[in-house]
Amino acid sequence: YNVVRDPAVGCTTNVWYRVRATITTNGPATVKYQWLQSDGNNTSSNPGPNYTLKFTEASSQTLTREWSFHLGASTGTKWMQIVIHAPSYQEYPQATFVYDCK
Known about the structure:
Elements: E1 2-6, E2 14-25, E3 29-37, E4 51-55, E5 59-70, E6 76-86, E7 90-91, E8 95-99
Antiparallel strand pairs: 1-2, 2-5, 3-4, 3-6, 6-7, 6-8
């Protein structure tokens, strides 16, 4: 994962966190995946794979998930995570960050 905060410093009205994950295959494949995050977005209402990537050959694709916090949002440690449902199930570690604007 690569976690980027925008803006990098300060507490503006909106602070964005972008998590990038790269998925690599060793040949043609259809990858079904899902993003999870600590606020429950994409978990309770949509418990299965949400997205599909098609690879025609061995290669990599980079995915981006964005999460916006408005000034006054609850502070603390947050996380986003990618889960692969197919071709074989795999949960990747959580990408954590701390939102600390009050």
